[in-house]
Write a structure and sequence with these properties.
Layout: E1 4-8, E2 13-14, E3 17-18, H1 20-32, E4 37-39, H2 52-66, E5 73-75, H3 81-94, E6 98-102, H4 111-124, E7 129-133, H5 135-138, H6 144-150, E8 156-161, H7 166-175, E9 181-184, H8 190-195, E10 200-203, H9 210-221, H10 225-242, H11 249-257, H12 274-286
Parallel strand pairs: 1-4, 1-10, 5-6, 6-7, 7-8, 8-9, 9-10
Antiparallel strand pairs: 2-3
Length: 290
Amino acid sequence: MFKGSMVALVTPFKNGKIDEKALAELVEFHIKNGTTALVPCGTTGESATLNYEEHDKVIELTIEFANGRIPVIAGTGSNSTEEAIMLTKHAKKAGARASLQVSPYYNRPTQKGLYLHFKAIAEAVDIPIILYNIASRTGVNIEPETFVKLAQVKNIIGVKEASGSLEQMSRIRSLVPKDFLLISGDDALTLPVMSIGGVGIISVVANIIPRDVADMCAAFEKGDMKKAGELHYKMLDLIKAMFVETNPIPVKTAMGLMKMIDPQIRLPLCEMLPENREKLIKALKEYKLI
């Protein structure tokens, strides 16, 4: 069910509020361009600066606009286990098909603490759960051996792996059951991750080039490595530009330049430095997006 190009959806704002019209248009854009799942309220969706009401609203609206055509994987993680359970219960009630659970940030839990945290959420809410491992944001890596234990929890079905380490991902893939999903959390590594048994990507760059990301994943699945490789290399410079500053600053700036959304972001994130904005504009022009 969860494979291919899944988008880490931005949260569009206008006058400081959620831009519901723009969000509806983004959902249609992704459905028309081959995106296989929508992932609202993750890092790219600025979940850290959404209040509870806004967080719930973005998930509800995304589900409403998708209208069952593609699944919604709701970002409902937290560094508070109780809060994560609360958010996940709401997402299930709203109709989300799965939950994305980032590892707790700032607390720096032990591996045992990580296991108990995710297990508690899974036992409290009967919904498929995809873990999100991104130590660069959270300060703690979920070790491959911990994934072995987590994979035994019935509704923990996979991981968005953003460690950047193909060695770690290979170890995870070799240790967990075959039906445990390995999903790339890094656009530049999508094709390499699929080559070691990954099923796709939860993508930032798919916010602006969903068809190319979807086509690369589909080409790999069909065994067309030539086409998959061509798309992989075509996207690399644009992907690099997406991370010239902290995500989602560049992607929302790009979407503003492309007239897709108002590029508003919330503090403490701020506008790009002029020199980095120029790098982004150069990449967008070379890709013929502006």
